Amino acid sequence: MLAPQYPVNLLVEGRSCLVVGGGAVAAEKAAALLACGAEVHVVAEAIGPEVRSLSVTWEERSYSLGEASDYRLVVAATGSASTNKAVYDDGEAAGVWVNSADDPDNCSFTLPAVVRRGPVMIAVSTGGRSPALASWLKGRLAAQIGPEYEVLAELLAAEREAVRADGRSTEGLNWQKALDSDMLELIKNGHVADARERLQACLSSPSD
After folding, report:
1. Are the C-beta atoms of 21 and 77 separated by less than 8 Å?
2. Tell me: the pLDDT tens digits for 78-92?
3. 3-state helix, strand, coil in the chain (%, to 5)
4. pLDDT tens profile 121-136
5. What CA–CA distance (Å, rounded) separates 183 from 206?
6. What angle do CA 188, 194, 195 make, to 5 degrees?
C-alpha cells in the first residue's frame, strides 16, 4: 500500500519553475503556475500555440540532462516516459520537486484538482491513482461552492484585521457562530452589508 501524501500549498510567486513539454497539457500546467506568480520557462522539441500564447519564456529544443537543478519546481508534460524519468531523476539528484503529468512513477509530488473562489481553495486528490475521480469530485464541489464563498472569506478577513488593528485578540471570538448563522444566505441574496452586521453581532456575543 502506498504511503499517504503530505498536503501542502507551495508559494511559487517570483520563483523559477520549468515546464518540459510544449503541448496543451504543458500549457495548462504552465498557466496554473503563472496564475500563482511563478516565473515559468518552457522547454520542448516543439512549442505549440497554447504555450506561445502564455507569458512564459520558452526554448524549442530537447531537455538537457541536469537542467532541472536550476529551478525550484519542475513539471514534465511530454508524453514520453523516458524524458519524464530523466527529468525526475535530475530533480531527485538536485533536491528539486518534480511532477510528471499522468506518470505517477516519475513524480515527487502530485497535483490535485482545484476549485478556487478567490482566496478559498479546495483541493481534491486521489494520490495520482485516479485523475478522473478527482476531476469528477471537483465538478461536484464547484457546483456547490459558489462565488458567495469568496465574499464570505473577504468579510471574515476584513473583520479579523479590524479586530487586530484595534489591539484585540482574534482568539476566543465566536467565528463558528457567525459561520453557522445565515451570513452565507444573506451574501447569496446580495445583502452583503447585512451579512457584515450579522458577523459583527456574532463576534460580539460570548463564545459557548
Report:
1. yes
2. 989 999 999 999 999
3. 45, 15, 40
4. 999 998 888 889 999 9
5. 18
6. 55
